[in-house]
Design brief:
The complex is a heterodimer. Chain A is about 65% helix and about 5% strand. By secondary structure, chain A is mainly α. Chain A has a single domain, classed as Ammonium transporter fold, CATH 1.10.3430. In chain A, helix 1 packs antiparallel against helix 8 and helix 2 runs parallel beside helix 5. Chain A starts with 10 loop residues before the first helix and ends in an 18-residue tail after the last helix. Chain B has one domain. Classes of the chains: A mainly alpha, B mainly alpha.
């Protein structure tokens, strides 16, 4: 097998890529606002503070060791030889970003984009652990994500690892393709969110003795919906920069990427609105916001390779999936996920990866060292199986171990008082009476 | 039971990998890989069920 070459970009591609990477933090800002708005008012400051803290921890840990484990296509890496084929399993860059040339080279752009992406992935579990997850535990869990879980999977997909090489090695299309991070960022974050929700358990008062859930509505729909609009800009950056860096997309293709991203989010929101209108009698604002983000998540994998009509179809399915899976997780699976992180990021991310295998029209040029179109769907299935069979047990195991030594859930008193006062000593809205006691027996 | 479920998830993944490495014909490879996904689905169901009802603190 010929190792994948490091791509060399034109000045135009480099300039466009830099411009789009500048937009990516807006996705993180949007997710932070959504998580905060969907949580309780007495934990609002804590939610924003933890968003900032986990982004910071993730960026620093990724700088220290994450990028060394992830690497980039064509960079140094450790390889296993299985049945005559090379399987790249982990990067072998130097720690602390040593050895990189910060001159707009492909490797430096990858390092920059990934530093932001890992921060975004680390913020996703905050949605499922809202109102009960200690600040210190959030940071420790984010360090594990940014130092171990994320870099390993990202190397397999974006660092020239074995998933990327499924096409060249085994004739599965162009290998596992995930241009904007539906799997590498969103599903990794979403499955970690599921692990956190399981380990923490539900909020006090969420489930009655008979297992019926109580509605604990978010405290600020305005924050949530504004976060959706900010996220759209962030996703333009994420999908476009990812397509240039990881799918060799021509910068002119960013127009198509932006159109597909918008259509996917729009169709998903409308689908969620229709489903909630029929199920509950009125469209649900928080679920529609989740639908919007679900559409963005589903668009990430395949946005450069879709016809606009296919993007609408993918968005509609993603929106319906969000509306239904939020209810399934809460009612049937007893997963208390205040921000809907599992449905939005894990379920829609998996759908986006699968949709690439079904709907994508791959370009004529080689990708991941392969040019074939046969069995692309199987390459996507192998990637999804890896997320469920490797990333989920790894994320669960790491957080379970962390919880054994450093309990991640706040004390009952802290949850009753609100995390703002309990952990930060001051509330987000000090001039208002913001809650009633919902610890009474229902 | 949750660790049995997580082990089944990993076992299903290994079946998918085995299908890719050991089989070259398209149909058996796809069938074997999908069977591995089925094992993963069983593992997911087991893990979900293992987390049911253990929430005394929530009552």
């Amino acid at each position: 097998m010929t190792p994948p070459a490091t791509p060399v970009f034109s000045d135009l591609a480099t300039a466009v890529c830099i411009l789009f990477v500048f937009l990516v933090p807006l996705a993180a800002a949007g997710i932070a606002l959504i998580n905060t708005g969907l949580g309780r008012s007495r934990s609002a400051a804590h939610s924003m503070m933890t968003s900032l803290a986990v982004f910071a921890v993730a960026a620093v840990v990724f700088f220290i060791c994450g990028f060394a484990f992830q690497g980039y296509a064509g960079g140094p890496g450790h390889v296993l030889r299985i049945a005559g084929k090379d399987w790249g399993w982990i990067g072998a860059q130097q720690f602390f970003l040593r050895g990189l040339r910060f001159d707009g080279s492909a490797s430096s752009l990858v390092a920059w984009l990934q530093m932001l992406s890992v921060g975004l992935a680390a913020m996703i579990p905050l949605g499922s652990g809202g109102d009960r997850w200690k600040l210190g535990a959030c940071c420790a869990s984010s360090a594990l994500l940014a130092g171990i879980t994320y870099p390993i999977f990202a190397h397999w997909v974006w660092g020239g690892g074995w998933l990327a090489q499924l096409g060249a090695n085994y004739g599965l299309g162009r290998g596992f393709v995930d241009a904007g991070g539906s799997g590498t960022i969103q599903v990794v974050g979403g499955l970690t969110a599921l692990s956190i929700a399981w380990i923490l358990g539900p909020r006090h008062g969420k489930y009655a003795v008979d297992g019926m859930p109580a509605a604990i509505p978010g405290h600020n729909a305005v924050l949530v919906l504004f976060g959706c609009l900010l996220s759209l800009l962030g996703w333009y950056g994420l999908n476009s920069a990812g397509a240039i860096l990881f799918a060799n997309a021509d910068p002119k293709r960013c127009v198509l990427i932006a159109i597909n991203t918008t259509l996917c989010a729009a169709a998903a929101t409308l689908a969620t609105a229709v489903v909630t209108r029929f199920r509950f009698g009125k469209p649900d604002a928080s679920l529609c916001a989740n639908g919007w983000i679900g559409g963005l998540v589903a668009s990430s994998a395949a946005a450069p390779f879709l016809a606009p009509a296919a993007a609408v179809l993918i968005g509609m399915v993603a929106g319906a999936l969000v509306a239904l899976s939020v209810e399934w997780f809460e009612l049937r699976f007893q997963v208390d996920d205040p921000g809907g992180a599992v449905s939005v990021h894990a379920v829609c991310g998996i759908w986006g990866l699968l949709a690439l295998g079904i709907c994508a029209r791959m370009p004529d040029q080689a990708l991941n060292g392969a040019i074939g179109n046969q069995s692309q769907w199987l390459a996507q299935v192998v990637g999804i199986a890896t997320l469920l069979g490797f990333v989920l047990p790894l994320a669960y195991g790491l957080n379970w171990l962390l919880n054994r030594f450093f309990p991640q859930r706040v004390a009952v008193e802290g949850e009753r008082q609100g995390l703002d006062l309990h952990e930060l000593g001051a509330g987000a809205y000090p001039e208002f009476v913001t809650h009633t006691d919902d610890f009474l027996n229902r | 039971m949750k660790f049995a479920g997580l082990s089944l998830l990993s076992a299903g993944w290994l079946l998918v990998l085995a299908a890719i490495v050991l089989l070259s014909a398209a149909a058996p490879r796809a069938a074997f890989a999908l069977a591995g996904c089925g094992v993963e689905a069983l593992g997911l169901v087991l893990t979900v069920r293992a987390h049911f009802g253990g929430y005394g603190a929530s009552e």
